[in-house]
Structure formats: structure tokens, C-alpha cells
Amino acid sequence: MRRLLHREGHRFRLHRPVPGMPRRTIDIAFPGVRVAVFLDGCFWHGCPQHATSPKANAEWWRQKLDRNMTRDRETTERLTEAGWTVLRFWEHEDPVTVAADIAAVVSSARGLRP
């Protein structure tokens, strides 16, 4: 994904702190145009297609994964309120398609044609 974006001339920052939210980071950030990209793992972030529930210690895991999803929503809300465009993709999505979607949003934010 990063290689595809870079090859197309898009420059970005990795693991940029989320403003006002300690210990949370943006996976791929375009700070100049305020575009935040998150690449969410299916297990850790509760993908509706691929998420699984561990059998051992099931209640603890359910609470942990629910907190992850809540934290994702809070992070998205905070960034949106601060004027950022937030893009979230699942790990199973096609990298070429995802990179094209990101590039289109970033180009649009810069006032360029994708």
C-alpha cells in the first residue's frame, strides 16, 4: 500500500499521533490536507466478514475487541471534528484498489484531479 502511494508521488507520514489523544496514532497521515488513513486488521478491529471469537477466555477477548472498536469510533469522531478526512480500510481489501481510493481523496483535497 505505502509503496503504491509513494510510487504515484504521494508523500505521507507514518504513525502520526492523533491530536489530543495520547497513545493513538494514524497509520498513514497526509497532514497538509488532513487526511488520515487507518488499515484495520480483521481480528483486532472486528471485521464483519472475517472476525473470529477465540474460544479460550472468550469473555475477556470479547471485551477487549469491543474496546478496540469503541476506540476506533472515538478516534474517527475526534479527527472528523478537528477537520480531518478519515479513511478506514480492512486488511483483506485489495491494496491496489485501496491505494487508488486514498490517492483520489488526497488529490481531491489538494484540489487536483485524481
What's the layout of helices and strands?
Elements lengths: L1 H6 L5 E5 L7 E6 L4 E6 L1 H4 L12 H24 L3 E6 L4 H15 L5
Parallel strand pairs: 3-4
Antiparallel strand pairs: 1-2, 2-3
GO molecular function: endonuclease activity; hydrolase activity
Pfam families: Vsr
InterPro entries: DNA_mismatch_endonuc_vsr (IPR004603), Restrct_endonuc-II-like (IPR011335)
Name the beta content range. Answer: 15-25%
Mean pLDDT: 93
SS elements, strand count: 4
Task: Please give the largest β-sheet.
Answer: 4 strands, mixed
> Briefly, what CATH class?
Alpha Beta
CATH homologous superfamily assignment: VSR Endonuclease
GO biological process, one term: mismatch repair
Family: Belongs to the Vsr family.
Organism: Streptomyces mashuensis
GO molecular function, one term: hydrolase activity
List keywords for this structure.
single chain, 114 residues, alpha+beta, Endonuclease, Chain A, four-stranded mixed sheet, 43% helix, DNA repair, endonuclease, DNA damage, Very short patch repair endonuclease, hydrolase activity
How does this structure look, described?
- This protein is α+β, with helices and mostly antiparallel strands and 114 residues long.
- The chain has one domain: VSR Endonuclease (Endonuclease, Chain A, 3-Layer(aba) Sandwich).
- It has a four-stranded mixed sheet, sandwiched between helices.
- A hairpin with a 4-residue loop joins strand 2 and strand 3.
